[in-house]
Amino acid sequence: MDKMRAIQYFNRAAEAGTFAAAARSFDVSTPAVTQLVAALERSLGTTLFHRTGRGLALTADGERYYEVSRVAAAGLLEVEKRLGQRGAKPRGTLTVGMRSSVAQNCVMPRIARFLERFPDIELVAKPVETLEEFDAQDVDLVVTTGWPPERDFVVRPLAQTRNMVCASPEYWLREGKPEEPEALRNHHCLVFRSSGGALLDRWTFERNGERRTVDVSSRLLSYHGTWIQEAACAGAGVIRAGDLSLVRFISSGLLVPALTDWEALDSPSHFVVYRQGQRRSKLVRVFVDFLIEVFAELEVHRPAALGHPMLREPMPEWFGRARGRQSEYAARRRSSR
User: Fold this and answer.
1) CATH number of 163-266+311-336: 3.40.50.2000, 3.40.630.30, 3.40.190.290, 2.40.160.210?
2) pTM (2 d.p.)
Protein backbone atom coordinates (compact mmCIF):
# COMPACT_ATOMS: atom_id res chain seq x y z
CA MET A 1 0.00 0.00 0.00
CA ASP A 2 1.19 3.50 -0.87
CA LYS A 3 0.45 4.95 2.58
CA MET A 4 1.16 8.57 1.67
CA ARG A 5 -1.27 8.40 -1.23
CA ALA A 6 -3.83 6.64 1.01
CA ILE A 7 -3.58 9.47 3.55
CA GLN A 8 -4.02 12.06 0.80
CA TYR A 9 -7.12 10.26 -0.47
CA PHE A 10 -8.48 9.97 3.08
CA ASN A 11 -7.95 13.65 3.82
CA ARG A 12 -9.59 14.77 0.58
CA ALA A 13 -12.55 12.42 1.10
CA ALA A 14 -13.01 13.80 4.61
CA GLU A 15 -13.03 17.34 3.22
CA ALA A 16 -15.17 16.63 0.14
CA GLY A 17 -17.71 14.37 1.83
CA THR A 18 -17.68 11.63 -0.85
CA PHE A 19 -15.16 9.28 -2.42
CA ALA A 20 -16.33 10.34 -5.89
CA ALA A 21 -15.52 14.00 -5.23
CA ALA A 22 -12.10 13.06 -3.84
CA ALA A 23 -11.42 10.93 -6.92
CA ARG A 24 -12.28 13.82 -9.25
CA SER A 25 -9.90 16.15 -7.47
CA PHE A 26 -7.02 13.69 -7.98
CA ASP A 27 -8.16 12.73 -11.51
CA VAL A 28 -8.38 9.04 -10.59
CA SER A 29 -11.23 6.53 -10.46
CA THR A 30 -13.57 6.28 -7.47
CA PRO A 31 -12.60 2.61 -6.84
CA ALA A 32 -8.94 3.68 -6.64
CA VAL A 33 -9.82 5.99 -3.73
CA THR A 34 -12.19 3.63 -1.93
CA GLN A 35 -9.80 0.68 -2.14
CA LEU A 36 -6.80 2.62 -0.84
CA VAL A 37 -8.80 4.18 2.03
CA ALA A 38 -10.10 0.71 2.93
CA ALA A 39 -6.50 -0.57 2.94
CA LEU A 40 -5.56 2.32 5.26
CA GLU A 41 -8.39 1.38 7.63
CA ARG A 42 -7.24 -2.24 7.67
CA SER A 43 -3.67 -1.23 8.43
CA LEU A 44 -4.87 0.95 11.33
CA GLY A 45 -7.32 -1.65 12.59
CA THR A 46 -10.20 0.82 12.81
CA THR A 47 -12.99 2.42 10.79
CA LEU A 48 -12.37 6.02 9.73
CA PHE A 49 -15.68 6.74 7.96
CA HIS A 50 -19.35 6.06 8.47
CA ARG A 51 -20.55 5.30 4.93
CA THR A 52 -24.16 6.32 4.24
CA GLY A 53 -26.30 6.90 1.19
CA ARG A 54 -25.82 10.64 1.67
CA GLY A 55 -22.03 10.53 1.79
CA LEU A 56 -19.26 10.12 4.35
CA ALA A 57 -18.99 11.09 7.99
CA LEU A 58 -15.86 10.73 10.11
CA THR A 59 -15.95 8.32 13.02
CA ALA A 60 -14.43 9.40 16.33
CA ASP A 61 -11.18 7.65 15.34
CA GLY A 62 -11.46 9.21 11.90
CA GLU A 63 -11.68 12.72 13.38
CA ARG A 64 -8.60 12.15 15.53
CA TYR A 65 -6.67 10.68 12.60
CA TYR A 66 -7.71 13.51 10.28
CA GLU A 67 -6.51 16.22 12.66
CA VAL A 68 -3.04 14.65 12.74
CA SER A 69 -2.80 13.40 9.16
CA ARG A 70 -3.76 16.68 7.47
CA VAL A 71 -1.02 18.54 9.35
CA ALA A 72 1.51 15.79 8.64
CA ALA A 73 0.57 15.63 4.95
CA ALA A 74 0.83 19.40 4.56
CA GLY A 75 4.24 19.37 6.24
CA LEU A 76 5.51 16.56 4.01
CA LEU A 77 4.24 18.35 0.92
CA GLU A 78 6.13 21.47 1.87
CA VAL A 79 9.32 19.51 2.46
CA GLU A 80 8.93 17.76 -0.90
CA LYS A 81 8.56 21.10 -2.63
CA ARG A 82 11.77 22.37 -1.05
CA LEU A 83 13.68 19.20 -1.88
CA GLY A 84 12.24 18.93 -5.38
CA GLN A 85 14.58 21.46 -6.91
CA ARG A 86 15.47 21.06 -10.58
CA GLY A 87 18.00 18.33 -11.18
CA ALA A 88 16.95 16.18 -8.23
CA LYS A 89 16.47 12.54 -9.16
CA PRO A 90 12.81 11.50 -9.18
CA ARG A 91 11.69 9.06 -6.52
CA GLY A 92 8.48 7.26 -5.72
CA THR A 93 6.20 4.58 -7.14
CA LEU A 94 5.09 4.59 -10.78
CA THR A 95 2.37 2.17 -11.90
CA VAL A 96 2.56 1.36 -15.60
CA GLY A 97 -0.01 -0.56 -17.62
CA MET A 98 1.19 -2.27 -20.80
CA ARG A 99 -0.33 -4.34 -23.57
CA SER A 100 1.27 -7.77 -23.14
CA SER A 101 2.92 -8.01 -26.56
CA VAL A 102 4.44 -4.51 -26.21
CA ALA A 103 5.73 -5.30 -22.72
CA GLN A 104 7.23 -8.68 -23.62
CA ASN A 105 8.76 -7.82 -26.99
CA CYS A 106 9.64 -4.13 -26.72
CA VAL A 107 9.82 -2.71 -23.19
CA MET A 108 10.75 -5.42 -20.68
CA PRO A 109 13.89 -6.62 -22.51
CA ARG A 110 15.25 -3.08 -21.95
CA ILE A 111 13.73 -2.23 -18.56
CA ALA A 112 16.98 -2.87 -16.63
CA ARG A 113 18.36 0.31 -18.17
CA PHE A 114 15.54 2.39 -16.68
CA LEU A 115 15.89 0.78 -13.25
CA GLU A 116 19.65 1.43 -13.21
CA ARG A 117 19.13 5.02 -14.31
CA PHE A 118 16.51 5.77 -11.64
CA PRO A 119 17.30 3.70 -8.54
CA ASP A 120 14.77 5.61 -6.38
CA ILE A 121 11.77 4.75 -8.57
CA GLU A 122 9.72 1.68 -7.72
CA LEU A 123 8.07 0.44 -10.91
CA VAL A 124 4.80 -1.51 -10.78
CA ALA A 125 3.95 -3.10 -14.16
CA LYS A 126 0.43 -4.36 -14.88
CA PRO A 127 -1.12 -6.03 -17.94
CA VAL A 128 -3.61 -3.64 -19.55
CA GLU A 129 -4.95 -4.90 -22.88
CA THR A 130 -7.50 -2.11 -23.56
CA LEU A 131 -7.85 1.51 -22.49
CA GLU A 132 -11.19 0.62 -20.90
CA GLU A 133 -9.07 -1.02 -18.18
CA PHE A 134 -7.21 2.24 -17.41
CA ASP A 135 -9.36 3.28 -14.45
CA ALA A 136 -10.02 -0.22 -13.12
CA GLN A 137 -6.31 -1.05 -12.97
CA ASP A 138 -5.41 2.25 -11.22
CA VAL A 139 -2.34 2.97 -13.37
CA ASP A 140 -0.43 6.19 -13.97
CA LEU A 141 0.08 5.59 -17.68
CA VAL A 142 -0.58 2.95 -20.33
CA VAL A 143 1.69 1.76 -23.16
CA THR A 144 -0.45 0.18 -25.85
CA THR A 145 -1.00 -0.52 -29.54
CA GLY A 146 -3.85 0.60 -31.77
CA TRP A 147 -5.15 4.04 -32.55
CA PRO A 148 -5.13 6.98 -30.08
CA PRO A 149 -8.31 7.36 -28.02
CA GLU A 150 -10.82 10.17 -28.33
CA ARG A 151 -11.02 10.46 -24.53
CA ASP A 152 -9.36 13.36 -22.77
CA PHE A 153 -5.94 11.73 -22.35
CA VAL A 154 -2.49 13.06 -23.11
CA VAL A 155 -1.24 10.91 -26.01
CA ARG A 156 2.43 10.56 -26.95
CA PRO A 157 3.08 8.59 -30.18
CA LEU A 158 6.01 6.17 -29.96
CA ALA A 159 6.23 4.36 -33.31
CA GLN A 160 4.24 3.42 -36.39
CA THR A 161 4.17 -0.29 -37.11
CA ARG A 162 3.99 -2.22 -40.36
CA ASN A 163 1.79 -5.31 -40.33
CA MET A 164 3.66 -8.47 -41.34
CA VAL A 165 2.30 -11.87 -42.35
CA CYS A 166 4.55 -14.58 -40.87
CA ALA A 167 4.75 -18.25 -39.99
CA SER A 168 7.44 -20.63 -38.83
CA PRO A 169 9.83 -22.12 -41.42
CA GLU A 170 8.38 -25.56 -40.65
CA TYR A 171 4.83 -24.34 -41.34
CA TRP A 172 5.75 -22.78 -44.70
CA LEU A 173 7.62 -25.96 -45.67
CA ARG A 174 4.59 -28.08 -44.80
CA GLU A 175 1.81 -25.89 -46.20
CA GLY A 176 3.53 -23.80 -48.86
CA LYS A 177 4.24 -20.06 -48.83
CA PRO A 178 1.45 -17.88 -50.31
CA GLU A 179 2.26 -15.85 -53.41
CA GLU A 180 -1.03 -13.89 -53.44
CA PRO A 181 -3.21 -12.66 -50.53
CA GLU A 182 -6.13 -14.91 -51.60
CA ALA A 183 -3.98 -17.99 -50.91
CA LEU A 184 -4.31 -17.25 -47.20
CA ARG A 185 -7.83 -18.69 -47.33
CA ASN A 186 -6.21 -22.13 -47.57
CA HIS A 187 -4.06 -21.61 -44.47
CA HIS A 188 -4.58 -21.89 -40.72
CA CYS A 189 -4.49 -18.27 -39.57
CA LEU A 190 -4.08 -17.20 -35.95
CA VAL A 191 -6.21 -14.24 -34.92
CA PHE A 192 -6.02 -11.94 -31.94
CA ARG A 193 -8.15 -9.07 -30.70
CA SER A 194 -7.33 -5.42 -31.33
CA SER A 195 -7.22 -2.94 -28.44
CA GLY A 196 -10.57 -1.69 -29.77
CA GLY A 197 -12.25 -5.07 -29.23
CA ALA A 198 -12.34 -6.67 -32.71
CA LEU A 199 -11.08 -10.14 -33.59
CA LEU A 200 -8.91 -9.35 -36.60
CA ASP A 201 -9.81 -12.00 -39.18
CA ARG A 202 -10.21 -9.57 -42.12
CA TRP A 203 -6.81 -8.85 -43.69
CA THR A 204 -6.44 -6.15 -46.35
CA PHE A 205 -3.43 -5.73 -48.64
CA GLU A 206 -2.36 -3.11 -51.16
CA ARG A 207 0.23 -3.07 -53.98
CA ASN A 208 0.69 -0.43 -56.68
CA GLY A 209 -2.77 0.98 -55.99
CA GLU A 210 -4.48 -2.43 -56.12
CA ARG A 211 -6.31 -3.46 -52.93
CA ARG A 212 -7.37 -6.98 -51.93
CA THR A 213 -9.22 -8.12 -48.79
CA VAL A 214 -9.21 -11.67 -47.43
CA ASP A 215 -11.43 -13.04 -44.64
CA VAL A 216 -9.10 -15.63 -43.20
CA SER A 217 -10.07 -18.94 -41.64
CA SER A 218 -9.12 -19.11 -37.96
CA ARG A 219 -9.29 -21.97 -35.49
CA LEU A 220 -7.23 -20.23 -32.81
CA LEU A 221 -8.29 -16.82 -31.47
CA SER A 222 -6.89 -15.02 -28.45
CA TYR A 223 -7.00 -11.70 -26.64
CA HIS A 224 -3.26 -12.01 -25.97
CA GLY A 225 -0.91 -11.29 -28.85
CA THR A 226 2.03 -12.96 -27.11
CA TRP A 227 0.15 -16.29 -26.98
CA ILE A 228 -0.57 -16.09 -30.70
CA GLN A 229 3.08 -15.27 -31.42
CA GLU A 230 4.26 -18.30 -29.47
CA ALA A 231 1.74 -20.51 -31.29
CA ALA A 232 3.00 -19.23 -34.65
CA CYS A 233 6.62 -19.95 -33.67
CA ALA A 234 5.53 -23.51 -32.80
CA GLY A 235 4.13 -24.03 -36.31
CA ALA A 236 0.41 -23.68 -35.50
CA GLY A 237 -0.33 -21.29 -38.36
CA VAL A 238 0.00 -17.86 -39.93
CA ILE A 239 0.08 -14.64 -37.92
CA ARG A 240 -0.39 -11.02 -38.92
CA ALA A 241 1.08 -8.56 -36.43
CA GLY A 242 3.06 -5.34 -36.11
CA ASP A 243 6.69 -5.67 -37.17
CA LEU A 244 8.29 -4.07 -34.10
CA SER A 245 6.80 -6.80 -31.91
CA LEU A 246 8.07 -9.48 -34.32
CA VAL A 247 11.65 -8.23 -34.81
CA ARG A 248 13.24 -10.71 -32.41
CA PHE A 249 11.31 -13.66 -33.86
CA ILE A 250 12.19 -12.74 -37.45
CA SER A 251 15.83 -11.94 -36.66
CA SER A 252 16.26 -15.32 -34.93
CA GLY A 253 14.57 -17.24 -37.77
CA LEU A 254 11.64 -18.42 -35.63
CA LEU A 255 9.24 -16.63 -38.00
CA VAL A 256 9.59 -15.98 -41.73
CA PRO A 257 7.63 -13.17 -43.46
CA ALA A 258 5.50 -13.77 -46.54
CA LEU A 259 3.76 -11.46 -49.05
CA THR A 260 6.42 -8.83 -48.40
CA ASP A 261 5.72 -7.18 -51.76
CA TRP A 262 2.22 -6.34 -50.48
CA GLU A 263 1.48 -3.69 -47.86
CA ALA A 264 -0.72 -5.15 -45.11
CA LEU A 265 -3.11 -2.34 -44.23
CA ASP A 266 -4.69 -1.32 -40.91
CA SER A 267 -1.28 -1.23 -39.24
CA PRO A 268 -1.62 0.21 -35.71
CA SER A 269 0.80 2.46 -33.87
CA HIS A 270 2.45 2.20 -30.48
CA PHE A 271 1.69 5.06 -28.09
CA VAL A 272 1.57 5.99 -24.43
CA VAL A 273 -1.37 7.70 -22.72
CA TYR A 274 -1.81 9.33 -19.34
CA ARG A 275 -4.22 11.71 -17.66
CA GLN A 276 -4.04 15.48 -17.98
CA GLY A 277 -3.27 15.72 -14.26
CA GLN A 278 -0.02 13.77 -14.77
CA ARG A 279 1.54 16.32 -17.15
CA ARG A 280 3.87 17.67 -14.46
CA SER A 281 4.76 14.33 -12.90
CA LYS A 282 8.51 13.75 -12.96
CA LEU A 283 7.98 10.00 -12.75
CA VAL A 284 5.71 9.97 -15.80
CA ARG A 285 8.04 12.28 -17.72
CA VAL A 286 11.17 10.18 -17.22
CA PHE A 287 9.37 6.95 -18.12
CA VAL A 288 7.90 8.48 -21.28
CA ASP A 289 11.40 9.69 -22.22
CA PHE A 290 12.65 6.14 -21.71
CA LEU A 291 9.89 4.76 -23.95
CA ILE A 292 10.75 7.26 -26.69
CA GLU A 293 14.35 6.06 -26.50
CA VAL A 294 13.33 2.38 -26.65
CA PHE A 295 11.11 2.74 -29.70
CA ALA A 296 13.64 4.94 -31.49
CA GLU A 297 16.13 2.07 -31.10
CA LEU A 298 13.59 -0.46 -32.37
CA GLU A 299 12.97 1.67 -35.45
CA VAL A 300 16.70 1.92 -36.16
CA HIS A 301 17.17 -1.84 -35.83
CA ARG A 302 14.12 -2.78 -37.87
CA PRO A 303 15.44 -5.33 -40.40
CA ALA A 304 15.78 -3.80 -43.88
CA ALA A 305 13.82 -6.73 -45.33
CA LEU A 306 10.74 -5.58 -43.43
CA GLY A 307 10.60 -2.26 -45.26
CA HIS A 308 9.27 0.94 -43.71
CA PRO A 309 5.74 1.61 -42.53
CA MET A 310 3.39 3.73 -44.57
CA LEU A 311 1.53 6.65 -43.05
CA ARG A 312 -1.97 5.70 -42.01
CA GLU A 313 -5.25 7.49 -41.54
CA PRO A 314 -5.72 8.04 -37.77
CA MET A 315 -8.30 5.30 -37.22
CA PRO A 316 -9.96 2.66 -39.44
CA GLU A 317 -13.75 2.77 -39.71
CA TRP A 318 -14.18 -0.54 -37.85
CA PHE A 319 -11.93 0.30 -34.89
CA GLY A 320 -13.92 0.56 -31.67
CA ARG A 321 -17.12 -0.41 -33.49
CA ALA A 322 -16.53 -4.05 -34.37
CA ARG A 323 -17.23 -6.51 -31.55
CA GLY A 324 -16.41 -10.13 -32.24
CA ARG A 325 -15.07 -11.03 -35.67
CA GLN A 326 -14.16 -8.10 -37.88
CA SER A 327 -15.37 -10.05 -40.94
CA GLU A 328 -18.86 -10.41 -39.43
CA TYR A 329 -18.98 -6.69 -38.73
CA ALA A 330 -18.10 -5.98 -42.38
CA ALA A 331 -20.83 -8.40 -43.56
CA ARG A 332 -23.45 -6.67 -41.41
CA ARG A 333 -22.35 -3.32 -42.80
CA ARG A 334 -22.76 -4.57 -46.37
CA SER A 335 -26.22 -6.06 -45.74
CA SER A 336 -27.50 -2.85 -44.12
CA ARG A 337 -26.71 -0.72 -47.17
Assistant:
1) 3.40.190.290
2) 0.66
